Amino acid sequence: xxxxxxxxxxxxxxxxxxxxxxxxxxxxxxxxxxxxxxxxxxxxxxxxxxxxxxxxxxxxxxxxxxxxxxxxxxxxxxxxxxxxxxxxxxxxxxxxxxxxxxxxxxxx
Length: 108
Hints:
Helix content: 25-40%
Number of strands: 5
Order of helices and strands: EEEEEHH
Strand order of the largest sheet: 1-2-3
Largest sheet: 3 strands, antiparallel
Number of domains: 2
Number of helices: 2
Distance between the termini: 48 Å
């Protein structure tokens, strides 16, 4: 079986607050790239629940966090459509993304 590793390194300050996030995905040509935030969701099919790791560095600006969430929500709508072929709900999710962007002053 072929495998591909994705590695996430979290640097912590003296209070165990993330101050550096680095990730590596060698198959994708990514080597120790810095990130300011990450959301990781894993489906536990036995328990029928989502397990999550949500991290951001202490210097992640709030305006960038808003953009990060908006872009993540848009990507989730796209992924949902590809995974389920449910165009109606995907469009509804995109409508919410537009609403979110408007309320967060993300669109010109």
